[in-house]
Amino acid sequence: MEGMTFVGHDKPFQYADGGLTVTRGSAWSAPGCHLGCGVLMYTDEDGRLVKVEGDPENPFNEGRLCVRCLAVPNAVNNPERIRKPMRRIGERGEDKWEEMTWDEAFDLIEEKFTYYKENFGAESVTFWQGTGRDIAAWITRLAWSFGSPNYGPSLNGLACYAPRVYGCIALSGSFWVGDYSQQFADRYDNPQWKRPDVIMVWGNNPLPANSDGAYGHWVIDCMQRGSKVVTIDPKVTWLGSRSELMLQVRPGTDAALALAMGNVMVEEGLYDEEFVEQWCTGFDEYKEVVKGYTPEKAAEICWVDADDIRKAARMFAEADGAIIQWGVALDQKEEAVTACQAVASLLMLTGNIDNPGGMIKPPEVLMYLNGWGFDLIAPEQYAKRLGPDKYKFYNAGVPAASAECMIEAMETGKPYPLKAAWIQTTNPLTCMGVDPQRTLEAFKKLDFIVVVDPFKTPTLMALADVVLPVAMFPERNGIRCGDGAQRIETINKAVVDPTLLSDMEINLELGRRLCPDAWPWDNVEDMFSAVYESVGLTFEEAQRKAPGYVPFEYYKYKTGKLRPDGQPGFMTPTGKLELWSNMMDAVGLPPLPAYEEPTPGPVTTPELYEKYPFVLTTGARRFNTFHAENRENPYLRRIHSEPAVQIHPADAERLGLTEGEWVWVEGPKGTTGDIGRCKRVVEITPTMLEGVVSTDHAWWHPEGDPERLYDVFDLNVNQLMPWGCGPSGMGANYKCLLCRIYKVEKGE
Ligand SMILES: Nc1nc2c(c(=O)[nH]1)N[C@H]1C(S)=C(S)[C@@H](COP(=O)(O)OP(=O)(O)OC[C@H]3O[C@@H](n4cnc5c(=O)[nH]c(N)nc54)[C@H](O)[C@@H]3O)O[C@H]1N2
Ligand SMILES: Nc1nc2c(c(=O)[nH]1)N[C@H]1C(S)=C(S)[C@@H](COP(=O)(O)OP(=O)(O)OC[C@H]3O[C@@H](n4cnc5c(=O)[nH]c(N)nc54)[C@H](O)[C@@H]3O)O[C@H]1N2
Ligand SMILES: [Mo]
């Protein structure tokens, strides 16, 4: 491709250093991660991975690396890993297995999937994936080429990223990410780039999470260059304590806060009048909505100071280049899409779209999308997708099926029977799904379940009939394109283990058996080269030259480059940024952003609040774990060894709790009358907002009894969550619940 920049290297991608071989590459999964840092992987004379370090030549992370990647040699060499395909020989839930050869495993899966397709339709086979991991293109290709539209994450309400993405698309036809210069090979030195004046970190904790392609330390790099930070979080995070302003907000009330900031910008005339006039529609209607959200009103709702809301709004509006570094906290409430719309509106009001040091359009992921295979499924098969009948919003470009609808179909056999599941890169019973008992009972009704995972997990133990092990990132080749960084990057094999297959090799082999026309390649390297065709590279060339950067321009809306018709403007029906959203209106949802109180909650269910007097948020990311992963890694486990509940000292004192003791966290599952609970260790910290507690998610004990599912039903906080999702089909209450806390009795 013309204008591409490659980072020049003075060494080949594999070279000797001392007695070791170094392989340069990038990290991905397994084990899980959202990023893809440049890494140097060191192997010894036996081919064993002994050390991983950050690659100082890679502009993405500039040599820095998180603790999970530094500990990857233990993951790769961990004795607990599954290394051979297995078949269940006992009942589901029993730890009884028989090893198989790869051929036997593929024969069995091919035979079963073909049988279900012939007798119940391809839609009876469901495909499940986890977050971020690089299986996305190859699992959709497998599902869609096989003819099944029922592919997706087991996440209720697609409550990760999707609400932010679709909240943004509703207004602007695109999604936008913070501009940290990640799209340029020369990064902060690039003359086109400008450092953002303000970074508003909203429901995100960039340093431990490094979420969705945004490397957390970029925020610090910008702070060192003068950016000011505003943090909006119920907890004073590390970054919060170094922020210009820290708004300790009640979980689930972010939309009210965003509308109040909009109110200040409008009332004080701080919004970018010229930009709004020229590029936005719906401003008058938006103005009416925010009128009702004075800072005083929002202060009462959000438990923050009204003057701090004013200050935050002024700082953001007056900045030359401002980023909203938002996170999954905004997605994890039933009314997530409208909340994300409320936050995204602030970008529109201030013209922080497509501008240096503001928000940029993520890179063209088209190269990667080449692999997805959406054109491979027949329209009449795709029309059987579970979700759009109940939630029209799924027709607004959402490719996946709805987890709730798939699980409900397992339970009822309606609208048609489901027979099988392919679970690759996800652990629904421990982490992803709400109400894990219900999820377990539903999946148990399926005839045949395959799990592809490097480790035994509660999900695998409870459900798998066939288990396929999988190579980790240092043991395989792979590609990554796009991903918020506008770059071409390869995952390079450092460890050669011919007994292990990668996810892509597994899916290619199964694809070749089930639908050979859609999988015309002999090996995955050829498959990757086919994806790179549009930029004129082969996989081997990319491997040698990566990372490569594709050309980037700001202000594409002015030059017609955001629209296929070449007209200036945005990819919306009006061509403008729609503060009043036509897309929302078209799917029967309110076109303007709104605030809804969480249910249950202090305001909506006062009687429940009396009994469960804490607002509970869950799942704040820790440095040492990625969701349910890394618990078997001794180095990482030592950093944070058991699930904690974080509580303010005044609250702990009132309950007579002491640091380190075990407690039950118990709460209502919505308003159904059911309750759920899980065990936690008390962590007393003044960083928590009083009246709010925060707990880790995705806990299990890999050292526990497999037939008790590794204690997952003692430890999984998702047992406190209601079933279902928001009115759009997106958003679920993972982060705004109610609970009470009491001591675990002896013997419990
Ligand atoms: N309470 C609460 N629950 C939450 C959240 C929360 O904040 N609070 N967050 C939610 C969010 S945002 C998400 S995205 C989900 C994530 O949920 P999941 O994506 O299901 O996360 P994991 O539990 O880590 O499951 C991943 C599984 O895949 C395996 N694995 C990892 N990498 C690979 C790979 O490359 N190939 C294969 N074949 N297997 C691999 C791991 O060993 C692990 O067993 O959790 C959700 N659950
Ligand atoms: N180390 C590690 N990294 C990860 C993951 C992991 O499990 N471990 N998971 C990956 C995944 S799938 C995702 S989606 C991302 C998520 O990454 P983030 O978006 O950072 O998500 P969290 O850490 O869950 O929450 C971010 C912050 O929101 C705060 N918060 C909680 N409730 C609310 C609320 O209602 N409003 C506001 N404003 N703030 C709230 C929490 O206290 C926390 O500090 O991280 C990814 N990266
Ligand atoms: Mo996520």
Summarize the structure.
This protein has 748 residues and is α/β, with parallel strands linked by helices. Bound molecules: ligand MGD (2 copies) and molybdenum atom.
Walk me through this protein's architecture.
This protein is an alpha/beta fold and 748 residues long. The protein has 29 helices and 29 strands. The strands form 7 sheets. Strands 7-6-19-18-17-8-9 form a 7-stranded mixed β-sheet. Helix 4 runs parallel beside helix 15 and helix 4 (136-146) packs parallel to helix 21. It is globular. The N and C termini lie far apart (63 Å). The model has no long low-confidence stretch (mean pLDDT 95). The structure holds ligand MGD (2 copies) and molybdenum atom. Residues 29-32, 130-131, 133, 155, 160, 328, 332, 424-427, 430-432, 452-455, 457, 470, 503, 618-619, 626-629, 697-698, 717-718, 734 line the site of one ligand MGD.
List the helices and strands and how they pair.
Layout: E1 5-6, E2 14-17, E3 20-26, E4 38-43, E5 49-54, H1 67-70, H2 72-76, E6 86-88, E7 97-99, H3 102-120, E8 125-129, H4 136-146, E9 151-152, H5 162-172, E10 177-178, E11 198-202, H6 206-209, H7 217-224, E12 228-232, H8 238-241, E13 245-247, H9 254-267, H10 273-279, E14 280-281, H11 283-291, H12 295-302, H13 306-318, E15 322-326, H14 336-350, E16 359-360, H15 366-372, H16 379-382, H17 403-412, E17 420-424, H18 428-432, H19 436-444, E18 448-452, H20 458-463, E19 466-468, E20 478-482, E21 487-491, H21 503-514, H22 524-532, H23 539-545, E22 548-549, H24 556-559, E23 577-578, H25 582-586, H26 606-611, E24 614-618, H27 634-639, E25 644-647, H28 649-655, E26 662-668, E27 675-684, E28 692-695, H29 712-715, E29 737-743
Parallel strand pairs: 8-9, 8-17, 11-12, 11-15, 12-13, 14-23, 17-18, 18-19, 24-28, 25-27
Antiparallel strand pairs: 1-22, 2-3, 3-4, 4-5, 6-7, 6-19, 10-16, 20-21, 21-22, 24-29, 25-28, 26-27, 26-29
The structure holds ligand MGD (2 copies) and molybdenum atom.
